[in-house]
Design brief:
This protein is an all-alpha fold. It has twelve helices and two strands, in the order H-E-E-H-H-H-H-H-H-H-H-H-H-H. The protein has a two-stranded antiparallel ribbon with strand order 1-2. A hairpin with a 3-residue loop joins strand 1 and strand 2. It is flat, with a radius of gyration of 26 Å.
């Protein structure tokens, strides 16, 4: 009897397997990064949020929900400020940013790269420095109020903007404006201009073309820009710390204080997780209302 021959893998099979594994191998570094620096810290933060103890005696998981009840009941003002300031600044960024993105995409011409550079130019300066500069701009004797008070005389001498909600919202709007402009510019840039010409050939007015062609096609950029603006604005604490007062504190200020000053890690962790959950719910509702829920899938 002759021994059965061993089955050998065809030479091309290994290559096909490697090609099939290629996408997963390319995803592996990013997934490992997210697991190590996001998923694992989030798990640790959840365990800390149901722990009891102190920094001196240590913390241990007890399953207590008191940090969550405290987070929901003791800081209603800060939660409201974060939601209100984040929503207003995001809306202002859209109202300011869409015309800018539209102009760059359709009217920029040879100056398009220069205009884009001007949009991202603030990123070459520290976020902290930019926020501090608004203390000077909005100061009682700064260039804005000084001109309105002493030159035009249309504002009372004792009028002040700094350390008010207006100052905080102004700082948030300015600092996160590029995050709104750039995604909308990318979406508008991808629109085939022949579609706009076709709308004109069908006797559509400029407003009808914008409302029924341009804006619907730009919705993915509007959605991305809104999310990139609202999420950091909702959790920001620098603008409220430097431009606001105790009455304008946001939930980010509470989290910072609980982590770094009070060392109340369970409450800070609960606040952080609730903030993350609240933002996810708000994003889902916004995506559904805007008709871009597929982008969150």
């Amino acid at each position: 009897m002759t021994a059965p021959s061993l089955t050998r893998t065809p030479p091309g099979a290994w290559r096909r397997r490697l090609l099939a594994l290629g996408p997963y191998l390319l995803l592996a570094p990013g997934l490992l990064w997210l697991v190590y620096f996001f998923v694992w810290p989030a798990i640790q933060m959840f365990l800390m949020s149901i722990s009891s103890g102190s920094l001196d005696n240590g913390f241990r998981v007890t399953g207590t929900l008191r940090p969550y009840t405290d987070a929901l009941t003791k800081f209603s003002t800060q939660w409201g400020n974060s939601l209100l300031y984040g929503a207003i600044s995001t809306t202002l960024d859209f109202l300011i940013g869409f015309p800018v993105a539209y102009t760059i995409a359709f009217k920029g011409g040879r100056y398009k790269n220069l205009l884009l550079f001007m949009v991202i130019a603030p990123f070459f300066t520290s976020f902290l420095i930019r926020t501090i500069s608004w203390q000077i701009l909005l100061g009682d004797e700064g260039p804005i109020l000084s001109f309105l008070k002493h030159t035009l005389g249309i504002v009372p001498v004792d009028f002040s903007i700094l350390y008010s909600p207006i100052a905080v919202i102004s700082g948030l709007t300015y600092n996160f404006l590029p995050f709104m402009i750039l995604p909308m510019y990318v979406a508008l840039e991808k629109i085939d201009y022949r579609l706009l010409e076709a709308a004109g050939d069908l006797y559509g007015s400029s407003w009808q073309t914008f409302r029924r062609v341009t804006f619907p096609l730009a919705l993915p950029g509007v959605f991305a820009g809104s999310i990139l603006t609202f999420i950091p604005a909702m959790g920001d604490y620098v603008n409220a710390e430097l431009l606001g007062s105790p009455k304008t504190r946001m939930i980010g200020n509470v989290i910072q204080g609980r982590f770094l000053q009070s060392t109340d890690y369970p409450s800070a962790s609960a606040l952080s997780l609730l903030l993350m959950l609240g933002i996810l719910i708000a994003v889902a509702i916004y995506a559904r209302a805007l008709g871009t829920e597929d982008l969150t899938g």
